[in-house]
Amino acid sequence: MPDSGGHVDIPLRGIALNLTAGVIFCVADTIAKKLAVDVAIVQITWTRYMVFTGMAFVLTTQVSGASFRVRSPRLQIVRALCLVCSSLLFVLGIRDVGLAEATTIGFIGPILVTFLSIPLLGEKVDARRWCALAAGMLGVLVVLRPGTGTFHPEGLYRVASALFWSVGVILTRRMTKTERAETTMFWSAATGLIVLTAIVPFHFTAPTAMQLTMSVAQGVFSSVGQWMVIISIRFTPVSTLAPYSYMSLLWMTVAGFLVFGVLPDQWTLVGAGTIVASGLYSANRERRHWRNGFRKKLQERP
User: CA 146 to CA 149: how far, in whole Å?
Assistant: First the structure.
């Protein structure tokens, strides 16, 4: 079914691409966690952005209608800086915290997007959504458990990462009508690479052959995952894809056990369940809103 923008809505294809992207991201993050033991965080992220920029350049030059010119360069730069900070904090977050726990904390991202969309985009949130958001925040507190002996301050890196990511999403929404996705992707990659290239000499250490291979591999997996997410959104509305993002918790749990021999504790599972329930409710509300808006546009067509 074509939408108002001329794209074809093929839900199953978009869902399949999104689920595959989740597995690919899991592989990339597992490699990054292994590397973070001996390699500087900035160096790991720099390598990822090297690959990311190359793939973004190829994508921008190959897609019909794509261009390197933007109408909102300041917003593009701010967005790119937010994503660089998010990436650095993300690797810091998974270095000392279990993959499943870090992923669960990261689910706060959509909640923060909703909060930030109120002052920054002027969106309205009804009472039911507020309750769902409050439940999601409660779930994060259950995972972090501040004030207890099991509190991991490193988990706050993931909270900060999610915050920067959320600001990036808000800025993306503001530029959706004026900027192409491929162009935004390239600007994010190139700007991030420039910033990291200026910083990495202060943290660089010569990698071993294995570390270099792993660094390039995590960059490739991460970039391919990003590309697949973009393609999946072309086939399926974001509100429909949102619930499937929680499958990443399963992939991360399996990877954490197989590679690091770690399983999430019971409180992490309780917190994860609360956050997922909140997210699924919010996604369902968004999906209904999208369908109603889509039907309204069809009815208004001559």
Answer: 8
Q: How many domains are there within the chain? A: 1
Contact 14, 236 (CB under 8 A): yes
What's the full length of the chain, in residues? 302
Q: Which residues lie across from 2 on neighbouring strands?
A: 8
Residue-number span of the structural domain to which 202 is assigned: 11-300
Beta carbons of 87 and 192 less than 8 angstroms apart: yes
Both tokens assigned to 195:
């910033």
Rounded to whole angstroms, how far apart are CA atoms 95 and 92? 5
CA–CA separation, 145 and 155 (whole Å): 10
For residue 258, count CB atoms less than 10 angstroms from its CB and return exposed for 0-12, middle for 13-18, buried for 19 or more.
exposed
**pTM of this structure:** 0.81
Percent of residues in the chain assigned helix, strand, coil, to nearest 5 = 80, 0, 20
Residue 4 domain-assigned? Answer: no
User: Is residue 52 within 8 Å of 59, Cβ to Cβ?
Assistant: no
From the list 101, 81, 82, 86, the residue with the least C-alpha distance to 160 is 86
pLDDT at residue 33 in the model: 93
Q: Please report, for residues 33, 213, 238, 257, 298, the alpha-carbon distance to residue 26 in angstroms, rounded to integers and kept in the order given.
A: 10, 17, 20, 13, 39
Give tens-digit pLDDT for 18-62: 899 999 999 999 999 999 989 999 999 999 999 999 988 988 888
Has residue 153 been placed in a domain? yes
CB 21 within 8 A of CB 228: yes
Among residues 300, 275, 294, the alpha carbon closest in space to that of 102 is found at: 275
284 occurs within a structural domain? yes
Q: In this structure, is residue 2 part of a structural domain?
A: no
pLDDT at 95: 87
pLDDT in tens, 110-127: 778 777 777 777 777 778
The low-confidence residues of the chain, meaning pLDDT below 70, are 1-10, 146-152, 238-239, 283, 285-302
Encoded tokens for 197 = 């290239």
